Every structure is written in C-alpha cells, then in structure tokens.
Sequence to fold (567 residues):
Amino acid sequence: MATKKTSPRRNPMDQIMQASAAFGFRVYKSVFRHSWPDSARTRSLATMSNVFLHLHPTTIRRASLKVTYTFCLGGLSFFFFLVLTVSGVLLMFYYVPSVTQAYQDIKDLQTVVFAGQFLRNMHRWGAHAMVIVVFLHMCRVFYTRAYRPPREFNWVVGVLLLVLTFLLSFSGYLLPWDQLSFWAVTVGTNIAKATPFVGPEAQFLLIGGYEIGQNALIRFYTLHVIALPLAAAVLIAVHFWRVRKDGFSGGL
Amino acid sequence: MADTSQERQANQEQAQAAAAETNRRAEARRRHDASNPLDKARPHRLLAVVKKEAGFIPTKEPSTIVHVWPHLLMIEFLCAIVFTVTLFITSAFINAPLEDLANPERTPNPSKAPWYFLNLQELLLHMDGGLAGVIVPTVVLLLIALVPYFDLGPGQMGRWFTSERGKAVVQFSAIYTAFWLFFLIAFDIFFPVKTLMKNLFPDASGKGILTTIKIPIPGGDPTYEPTPGGMLNVSVTPADIIFSNWIIPISVIFILSGLLIFLVRKRFNADRRDIFQALFTGFVVAFAITTVVGTAFRGYGQNFDWLWWAFKRPL
Ligand code: HEM
Fold:
C-alpha cells in the first residue's frame, strides 16, 4: 500500500500536472491545429493555416531571403503602419478635435496621462520613419527593376501608397494645434491655392474656409483617423495580394 | 442488461479501431514528412560526371527552396524587434515638439511646411507657386507611376542597378544632379532671377510691363462707372514674371534632363533602362537636396542662411 501511494502515477500532484498538460495541449491544438512546426508538413501548415501568415507562400527560394535585396523596407513600411495604427488608436482616447480643447489635450497627454508623452513620441517618430521608409522602399523597387511585368500595376498601387503616406502624415500634423502645426498647415494648404484654375476652390475644399480654423481641424482629423488609414489599409491589402500573385522578384 | 454490455463492447472495439487508425495515420505522416525533400539537407545529387565541353554550364546556382516558417518569418520577426526597440528608445529620450497654442495673429518667420514638403517650398522660391506646388509634383508622380509601362527593353530584373553600367550611370547622374542643383540654388542667391528679369523688362514705374490691358467691350457704355470707359480690365501676368516664374524654370528642367540623357547615352552607351535610372536618380537626388536645403538652410524670410539649422525649428 505504502509503495503504491508514493508511485508517480498515483501522486495527485502528478495527476494534476498531467491533466493540465493534456488540457494545455488540447487548447494549443484548438488554436494552431498542428504541433510545433518542425517538419515539412507542420511548417507548411504554420503559414497556411494562420490568417496573419497565410499572405506568405509556404516555401520560398533561399536566394529571395537575402536582406541586402529588400533591406526589409516593404515589411518595415507595414510595420510602421501598424505601430501608427495602434499608437494612434490609443491617442484617440485622449484627443478631442476642437480648437478650444485639442492643444490642452496634448498638454495633458504629456503631463498627466501615464506614458502619454512616450505614446505621443512613438506616434510622431513613427510617422517620420514611415515617410522615409516608404520612400526608400520605392527606391529599392526601382533600382532592382522589380516593377517589371506583371508587376506594373503593383508599382502604381505603390505610388498611390506613397501619396497616401504623405497625406496621412500631413493631415496629422495639424492636430496638436500649436504654432508649429498651424503655420505648417497654413503654408501647405497655401500651396493648394496655387493650383491652376481651381486653386481657391481646392484650398476651400481642403480646409472648409478661407483660413485654418475649426472646420479645417475637423476635416483633417476625419481624414487622418478614418478616411486615409482606411484607404491605405485597402491599398496595402491589394499591394500584398499582388506581391503574392505576381511572385516576388528576388532571387530569380 | 445484455444489450448494454454488448453495446459497451462494441464501443470499446470502435475506440480501439479508431486508435489504431490514428496511429496508422500518424505513422504515415511521419514517413511522408521524412521523405519530403525539403527536410533533406541536400537538395541535389550527383547524376553523372561529364567532360567540361559536353555539359551545359548553368548560369545560376541550383535554386534551393526553403520553408517560410521559420526562414522568412525569423527575418521579419528580428527586423520588427530591432525597430520596435529602436523606436522605444528614441521615444523614451527624444520628445515630440509642442510649441505655443496656435495663434493666427502671430506668423512665425520663417513659416515652414512639414519637412517632407520643404522640397516643394524650396521650388516655390524659384518659380510660380502653381508650377512648384502642384504641376511639378503631379507630373513627377505620374511619370514615376508610368515607368513600368515604358521600361520594356531587355535585361534582368532583381539585380541592383540592373548592370555594372547601370550602377555607373546612377553614380554619374547623382553627381550631375547634385552639381547642377547646388549651382542653381547658389545662382539664384547671388543673381536672383526674378530681379534680373525685372531689370530686363522694366516699364516706367518699374513694375514690369503689361500688368493690365484694357479691352473695349463692344457696345459698352463709355460713361459707366465703376468699370470706366466701357473697357474690360484684363490682368495679364507681367513679362518678367512669365520669364522668371515659368519659362526659365521649365526650360532649366527640360534642358538639364535632356543634357543628362544625352551625356549618359554618349558616355555609357546607356539603354532605355539606364536612361530611366538616370532620370529617377535625378529626381531622388533633387528631392533629397531641396529637402535638406529647405529644412536646414532657409531662415528669416526664406533667405539662405548657413546657420539656420543651428537654431532650427523642430520637425
Ligand atoms: C505603405 C506603403 C507600402 C507598403 C506597406 C509596402 C509593402 C510591400 C511589401 C511588404 C513588399 C514585399 C517585398 C518587400 O518587402 O520589398 C512590397 C513589394 C513591392 N512594392 Fe511595396 N509597399 C509600400 C509602398 C510601395 C511604393 C511607394 C511602391 C512604389 C512606388 C511599391 C512598389 C512595390 C512593388 C512593385 C513590389 C513588388 C516587388 C518585388 O516583387 O520585388 N510599394 N511592398
């Protein structure tokens, strides 16, 4: 009896451990559907059966992996887009797009909100980084001639994404409502006024008046947090889909 | 009672059969995985040894295929980690700027757009606002978008600068563009083209000729005020402005691009892809230089200021 009691199978602690391990494995399986990707089949499944990863093919030429070909720039463009989306949503909890409140909200963010300054910094530097990285990605694609047929259209989608990136950054620039943002956007939208034939109309459409004020702020805000990110997300989806369907140019 | 025990036995048998089936499948899978060539370290094998002349010489290494998990995903993951950490550190130590509350009454001098538009603001100093701010960027973006539809010549894809010649063309174009841009910016500082043109086309009041012309309105009432004399006032851009803001900058752009094409053709025997590379490089270098000059070296009244960057407005 005594020996039986101390045998591992009967130890209640071991039984609990075994049961929870089995349960844990069941939960893992229910999420991932396959065991740890260490065989050809499970590695294929790892990309195929995961909604976030399945944009990738399951296999790739080893030569395509060369980092000095892409310098990860397309992936980094997307990375910064995601960082900006997440930090931007968090900023939205604190920011009211009103000329009487916006500036104070930013001040509060920097002084009273926990990690608010850090959050704002991340959004600001991330935005600058995205402009640079997207531009460099375009240069990479150009100089490797990766726009060759059948990728012409994806290049055009890319150009639209570059424009959207500029517009996203510019529309966000007004929101802190300080001297910097106010005058930068005044200068920027005065350029729109110089459009031949429809200049004043174009500027009026953009800022909802003759000078930057509440109308301009709400327009820029709406563009910045909804319209432009949505457009960018759709175009990025198209862009990735086309990279996948047209085939990646590297390592051929 | 008998029924239930029979049922129980049947159930047990079924469970055993299912377990056996699972085992069989697992074994089959294992064997399948093991036989998958992707799991083997060596993707090619020696078939025969032939004399050198007899075989064809492959131009590429035999292509090896690897799984995206983990090979590509590991790179993406590392890249994301590195940049997350970098962004965290940057954000922990450098604060985003925040100036005083917006005040429409107090115009800062200089007033500048965000840095990525300062290239356009730089152009604005040298040409018409519509040309610099709208026409040039629109045309440039359209031309860039159209490149793949016209770059259809032979040659590889997937190699940096396409060829050694392409690389030389890009280097040459970068130096060429940098030289001309610095020259043009310096020229406009020491001999402002707008003033030069004003001196070339003076009128009595020194305002430039042809500022407004009057066209008689057929059947117009000569006594009608406030548009006097039955005349239609048409304002016409003065000749000096037409020259300094339109004709000269457009000519400069076309002549310098044309000269670049001519030179890379002559010097490097450039093909069409190389010409596109030359022009694109011209764009990138011009974009970079005008951005830096506009950001760091334009001070009070947008005048050139070597030291402005030292007191620079935040980004
Ligand atoms: C938000 C902006 C953008 C994102 C998130 C993005 C993302 C990506 C990614 C992840 C790839 C896969 C290969 C790589 O990483 O280089 C790619 C490829 C490509 N991108 Fe972009 N991109 C953006 C903007 C652009 C721009 C501005 C252009 C060109 C004007 C462009 C043109 C292309 C083309 C033609 C390919 C296929 C390249 C190949 O097969 O080698 N993209 N992009």
Summary: Chain B touches chain A through 84 residues (CB under 8 Å). Helices of chain B lie at 2-35, 68-93, 118-124, 129-150, 164-190, 193-200, 239-268, 272-296.
